[in-house]
TrEMBL record:
CDD domains: crotonase-like. Keywords: Lipid metabolism. It comes from the Bacteria. SUPFAM superfamilies: ClpP/crotonase. This is Enoyl-CoA hydratase. InterPro entries: ClpP/crotonase-like_dom_sf, Enoyl-CoA_hydra/iso.
Length: 297
Protein backbone atom coordinates (compact mmCIF):
# COMPACT_ATOMS: atom_id res chain seq x y z
CA UNK A 1 0.00 0.00 0.00
CA UNK A 2 1.47 3.31 -1.08
CA UNK A 3 0.37 5.27 2.00
CA UNK A 4 0.25 2.64 4.70
CA UNK A 5 -0.89 4.28 7.93
CA UNK A 6 -2.21 1.10 9.58
CA UNK A 7 -0.47 -2.28 9.69
CA UNK A 8 -1.90 -5.70 10.48
CA UNK A 9 -0.37 -8.88 11.85
CA UNK A 10 -1.52 -12.15 13.37
CA UNK A 11 0.08 -13.92 16.34
CA UNK A 12 -0.29 -17.18 18.23
CA UNK A 13 -1.13 -19.28 15.16
CA UNK A 14 -3.67 -16.69 14.07
CA UNK A 15 -5.69 -16.53 17.29
CA UNK A 16 -4.70 -12.92 17.95
CA UNK A 17 -4.70 -10.09 15.43
CA UNK A 18 -2.74 -6.94 16.21
CA UNK A 19 -3.57 -3.71 14.41
CA UNK A 20 -1.03 -0.89 14.60
CA UNK A 21 -1.68 2.78 14.07
CA UNK A 22 1.49 3.36 12.09
CA UNK A 23 1.98 7.08 11.75
CA UNK A 24 4.42 7.78 14.58
CA UNK A 25 6.02 10.78 12.90
CA UNK A 26 2.61 12.49 13.19
CA UNK A 27 1.87 11.12 16.67
CA UNK A 28 -0.69 8.85 14.98
CA UNK A 29 -2.96 11.79 14.19
CA UNK A 30 -6.04 10.37 12.53
CA UNK A 31 -6.24 11.27 8.87
CA UNK A 32 -9.18 9.93 6.96
CA UNK A 33 -6.83 7.58 5.15
CA UNK A 34 -5.85 6.14 8.52
CA UNK A 35 -9.49 5.67 9.53
CA UNK A 36 -10.36 3.93 6.25
CA UNK A 37 -7.40 1.59 6.67
CA UNK A 38 -8.30 0.98 10.31
CA UNK A 39 -11.83 -0.01 9.31
CA UNK A 40 -10.41 -2.36 6.68
CA UNK A 41 -8.14 -3.95 9.31
CA UNK A 42 -11.00 -4.46 11.77
CA UNK A 43 -13.13 -5.94 8.99
CA UNK A 44 -10.29 -8.28 8.04
CA UNK A 45 -9.98 -9.51 11.63
CA UNK A 46 -13.74 -9.93 11.95
CA UNK A 47 -13.90 -12.06 8.81
CA UNK A 48 -11.08 -14.37 9.98
CA UNK A 49 -12.53 -17.31 11.91
CA UNK A 50 -9.13 -18.05 13.44
CA UNK A 51 -8.94 -14.67 15.18
CA UNK A 52 -10.40 -14.54 18.68
CA UNK A 53 -8.91 -11.33 20.07
CA UNK A 54 -7.89 -8.10 18.36
CA UNK A 55 -5.31 -5.74 19.87
CA UNK A 56 -5.39 -2.11 18.77
CA UNK A 57 -1.92 -0.63 19.34
CA UNK A 58 0.09 2.36 18.12
CA UNK A 59 3.68 2.91 17.06
CA UNK A 60 5.79 5.56 18.69
CA UNK A 61 5.68 7.57 21.89
CA UNK A 62 2.00 8.50 21.82
CA UNK A 63 -1.10 6.46 21.09
CA UNK A 64 -2.80 9.23 19.11
CA UNK A 65 -3.07 13.01 19.03
CA UNK A 66 -6.66 12.77 17.80
CA UNK A 67 -8.02 14.12 14.52
CA UNK A 68 -5.46 15.37 12.04
CA UNK A 69 -6.71 18.92 11.60
CA UNK A 70 -3.80 20.67 9.97
CA UNK A 71 -1.44 18.59 7.84
CA UNK A 72 -1.40 19.12 4.08
CA UNK A 73 -2.50 15.54 3.53
CA UNK A 74 -5.46 15.91 5.90
CA UNK A 75 -6.61 19.15 4.29
CA UNK A 76 -6.36 17.57 0.83
CA UNK A 77 -8.51 14.63 2.00
CA UNK A 78 -11.36 16.98 2.86
CA UNK A 79 -11.68 18.30 -0.70
CA UNK A 80 -14.17 18.54 -2.28
CA UNK A 81 -15.67 18.32 1.21
CA UNK A 82 -16.50 21.18 3.55
CA UNK A 83 -14.84 24.37 2.36
CA UNK A 84 -12.14 25.36 4.84
CA UNK A 85 -11.19 28.61 3.13
CA UNK A 86 -12.59 32.17 2.76
CA UNK A 87 -15.71 31.16 0.80
CA UNK A 88 -16.83 29.28 3.88
CA UNK A 89 -17.13 32.61 5.62
CA UNK A 90 -19.77 33.84 3.19
CA UNK A 91 -23.38 33.85 4.31
CA UNK A 92 -26.39 31.85 3.23
CA UNK A 93 -26.34 28.79 1.00
CA UNK A 94 -22.56 28.31 0.91
CA UNK A 95 -22.33 27.96 4.68
CA UNK A 96 -25.42 25.75 4.84
CA UNK A 97 -24.02 23.40 2.20
CA UNK A 98 -20.65 23.29 3.98
CA UNK A 99 -22.24 22.39 7.30
CA UNK A 100 -24.26 19.64 5.66
CA UNK A 101 -21.13 18.16 4.09
CA UNK A 102 -19.30 18.35 7.40
CA UNK A 103 -22.20 16.67 9.19
CA UNK A 104 -22.32 13.78 6.70
CA UNK A 105 -18.57 13.27 6.70
CA UNK A 106 -18.27 13.27 10.48
CA UNK A 107 -21.27 10.93 10.75
CA UNK A 108 -19.51 8.44 8.50
CA UNK A 109 -15.84 8.75 9.49
CA UNK A 110 -16.18 9.40 13.21
CA UNK A 111 -19.58 8.21 14.44
CA UNK A 112 -20.79 5.22 12.43
CA UNK A 113 -17.27 3.75 12.19
CA UNK A 114 -16.76 3.92 15.94
CA UNK A 115 -20.15 2.41 16.72
CA UNK A 116 -19.46 -0.45 14.33
CA UNK A 117 -16.08 -1.15 15.93
CA UNK A 118 -17.72 -1.24 19.35
CA UNK A 119 -19.94 -4.12 18.15
CA UNK A 120 -17.19 -6.00 16.27
CA UNK A 121 -17.66 -9.77 16.44
CA UNK A 122 -14.35 -10.20 18.22
CA UNK A 123 -13.04 -9.24 21.65
CA UNK A 124 -10.95 -6.09 21.28
CA UNK A 125 -8.23 -4.65 23.50
CA UNK A 126 -6.79 -1.14 23.22
CA UNK A 127 -3.09 -0.88 24.12
CA UNK A 128 -2.34 2.72 25.08
CA UNK A 129 0.91 4.55 25.75
CA UNK A 130 1.68 8.25 26.04
CA UNK A 131 -1.01 10.72 25.07
CA UNK A 132 -4.49 9.69 23.99
CA UNK A 133 -6.13 12.99 23.07
CA UNK A 134 -9.72 13.69 22.01
CA UNK A 135 -10.48 11.45 19.00
CA UNK A 136 -8.00 8.91 20.38
CA UNK A 137 -10.57 8.31 23.12
CA UNK A 138 -13.07 7.28 20.48
CA UNK A 139 -10.79 4.52 19.26
CA UNK A 140 -10.03 3.11 22.69
CA UNK A 141 -13.60 3.44 23.99
CA UNK A 142 -14.82 1.36 21.05
CA UNK A 143 -12.70 -1.52 22.39
CA UNK A 144 -13.96 -4.00 24.96
CA UNK A 145 -10.93 -3.60 27.23
CA UNK A 146 -8.23 -0.97 27.67
CA UNK A 147 -4.73 -1.58 29.01
CA UNK A 148 -2.37 1.31 29.58
CA UNK A 149 1.30 2.01 30.02
CA UNK A 150 2.26 3.75 33.23
CA UNK A 151 2.96 6.91 31.20
CA UNK A 152 -0.49 7.06 29.57
CA UNK A 153 -2.59 10.23 29.74
CA UNK A 154 -6.16 10.68 28.56
CA UNK A 155 -7.86 13.98 27.67
CA UNK A 156 -10.47 15.61 25.48
CA UNK A 157 -9.62 19.22 24.73
CA UNK A 158 -12.44 20.01 22.30
CA UNK A 159 -14.78 21.19 25.04
CA UNK A 160 -12.75 24.19 26.18
CA UNK A 161 -10.91 24.76 22.90
CA UNK A 162 -13.61 24.32 20.26
CA UNK A 163 -16.79 25.04 22.15
CA UNK A 164 -18.00 21.42 21.77
CA UNK A 165 -19.44 19.10 24.41
CA UNK A 166 -16.75 16.55 23.48
CA UNK A 167 -15.69 14.42 20.53
CA UNK A 168 -18.18 12.87 18.11
CA UNK A 169 -18.48 9.54 19.99
CA UNK A 170 -19.78 10.97 23.25
CA UNK A 171 -19.08 8.21 25.78
CA UNK A 172 -17.54 10.51 28.39
CA UNK A 173 -20.21 10.18 31.14
CA UNK A 174 -20.13 6.40 30.79
CA UNK A 175 -16.35 6.12 30.86
CA UNK A 176 -15.48 8.86 33.38
CA UNK A 177 -18.71 9.19 35.36
CA UNK A 178 -20.93 12.29 35.06
CA UNK A 179 -19.10 14.70 37.36
CA UNK A 180 -15.61 13.72 36.26
CA UNK A 181 -16.74 14.10 32.65
CA UNK A 182 -17.92 17.64 33.36
CA UNK A 183 -14.66 18.48 35.13
CA UNK A 184 -12.42 17.17 32.37
CA UNK A 185 -14.42 18.74 29.55
CA UNK A 186 -14.75 22.11 31.28
CA UNK A 187 -11.06 22.34 32.16
CA UNK A 188 -9.38 20.39 29.36
CA UNK A 189 -7.34 18.56 32.02
CA UNK A 190 -6.02 15.04 31.52
CA UNK A 191 -6.10 11.98 33.74
CA UNK A 192 -3.26 9.54 34.10
CA UNK A 193 -3.34 5.76 33.95
CA UNK A 194 -3.86 5.39 37.70
CA UNK A 195 -6.88 7.71 37.65
CA UNK A 196 -8.29 5.89 34.63
CA UNK A 197 -7.83 2.57 36.45
CA UNK A 198 -9.65 3.86 39.54
CA UNK A 199 -12.51 5.05 37.34
CA UNK A 200 -12.78 1.59 35.81
CA UNK A 201 -11.90 2.76 32.31
CA UNK A 202 -8.54 0.96 32.25
CA UNK A 203 -8.29 -2.75 33.12
CA UNK A 204 -4.52 -3.13 33.51
CA UNK A 205 -1.48 -0.88 33.90
CA UNK A 206 1.93 -2.08 32.74
CA UNK A 207 5.39 -0.48 32.66
CA UNK A 208 5.75 1.24 29.31
CA UNK A 209 8.74 -0.90 28.34
CA UNK A 210 6.66 -4.06 28.98
CA UNK A 211 3.40 -2.85 27.47
CA UNK A 212 3.48 -4.82 24.21
CA UNK A 213 4.48 -8.12 25.81
CA UNK A 214 2.11 -7.81 28.77
CA UNK A 215 -0.81 -6.87 26.53
CA UNK A 216 -0.14 -9.94 24.41
CA UNK A 217 -0.14 -12.12 27.53
CA UNK A 218 -3.45 -10.58 28.57
CA UNK A 219 -4.90 -11.21 25.11
CA UNK A 220 -3.78 -14.83 25.23
CA UNK A 221 -5.74 -15.40 28.44
CA UNK A 222 -8.90 -14.10 26.79
CA UNK A 223 -8.26 -16.00 23.56
CA UNK A 224 -8.37 -19.22 25.59
CA UNK A 225 -12.05 -18.65 26.38
CA UNK A 226 -14.62 -20.34 24.13
CA UNK A 227 -15.43 -17.99 21.26
CA UNK A 228 -19.20 -18.16 21.65
CA UNK A 229 -19.06 -17.59 25.38
CA UNK A 230 -16.82 -14.55 24.90
CA UNK A 231 -19.17 -13.03 22.34
CA UNK A 232 -22.21 -13.69 24.52
CA UNK A 233 -20.49 -11.87 27.38
CA UNK A 234 -19.70 -8.95 25.08
CA UNK A 235 -23.24 -8.81 23.72
CA UNK A 236 -24.79 -9.04 27.18
CA UNK A 237 -22.73 -6.20 28.63
CA UNK A 238 -23.22 -4.01 25.55
CA UNK A 239 -26.96 -4.68 25.61
CA UNK A 240 -27.11 -3.71 29.29
CA UNK A 241 -25.39 -0.41 28.49
CA UNK A 242 -27.76 0.17 25.59
CA UNK A 243 -30.77 -0.50 27.84
CA UNK A 244 -29.46 2.24 30.15
CA UNK A 245 -29.46 4.67 27.24
CA UNK A 246 -25.88 4.47 25.96
CA UNK A 247 -26.53 4.42 22.21
CA UNK A 248 -29.25 7.07 22.39
CA UNK A 249 -26.90 9.28 24.41
CA UNK A 250 -24.24 8.76 21.72
CA UNK A 251 -26.64 9.92 19.01
CA UNK A 252 -27.66 12.97 21.00
CA UNK A 253 -24.04 13.82 21.78
CA UNK A 254 -23.10 13.61 18.10
CA UNK A 255 -25.85 16.02 17.07
CA UNK A 256 -24.88 18.47 19.81
CA UNK A 257 -21.27 18.21 18.61
CA UNK A 258 -22.38 19.24 15.12
CA UNK A 259 -24.35 22.13 16.61
CA UNK A 260 -21.07 23.20 18.21
CA UNK A 261 -19.46 23.32 14.76
CA UNK A 262 -22.27 25.52 13.47
CA UNK A 263 -22.00 27.82 16.49
CA UNK A 264 -18.24 28.14 16.06
CA UNK A 265 -18.64 28.94 12.37
CA UNK A 266 -21.30 31.58 13.03
CA UNK A 267 -19.24 33.39 15.65
CA UNK A 268 -15.81 33.12 14.06
CA UNK A 269 -16.53 33.77 10.39
CA UNK A 270 -13.92 36.51 10.16
CA UNK A 271 -11.20 34.64 12.01
CA UNK A 272 -10.05 31.11 11.24
CA UNK A 273 -11.51 28.29 9.15
CA UNK A 274 -13.90 25.91 10.85
CA UNK A 275 -12.27 23.63 13.38
CA UNK A 276 -8.92 25.40 13.61
CA UNK A 277 -9.01 27.85 16.55
CA UNK A 278 -5.64 29.36 17.45
CA UNK A 279 -4.93 27.42 20.64
CA UNK A 280 -5.82 23.86 19.61
CA UNK A 281 -2.80 21.56 19.99
CA UNK A 282 -2.14 19.12 17.20
CA UNK A 283 0.40 16.39 16.61
CA UNK A 284 3.07 18.94 15.60
CA UNK A 285 3.07 20.48 19.08
CA UNK A 286 3.05 17.30 21.16
CA UNK A 287 6.21 17.06 23.17
CA UNK A 288 7.14 20.70 22.59
CA UNK A 289 8.13 22.75 25.67
CA UNK A 290 5.09 24.27 27.34
CA UNK A 291 5.00 28.03 27.88
CA UNK A 292 5.36 29.30 31.41
CA UNK A 293 2.02 29.81 33.13
CA UNK A 294 0.59 30.42 36.53
CA UNK A 295 -0.54 27.44 38.55
CA UNK A 296 -4.25 26.79 38.37
CA UNK A 297 -6.40 25.02 40.92
Amino acid sequence: MADEQVTYETLDEGRIARIWLDRPESQNAQSRTLLVQLDEAFTRAEADDQVRVVILAARGKNFSAGHDLGSEAALAERKPGPDQHPTFRSHGATRSASMEKLYLQEWHFYFENTKRWRDLRKITIAQVQGNAISAALMLIWACDLIVAADDAKFSDVVGVRLGMPGVEYYAHPWEFGPRKAKELLLTGDSIDAEDAYRLGMVSKIFPVEELTDKTLEFARRIAERPTMAALLIKDSVNAASDAMGFTEALRHGFHIHELGHAHWAAHNENRLPLGLPPDVPDWRTLGAPKPARRDQP
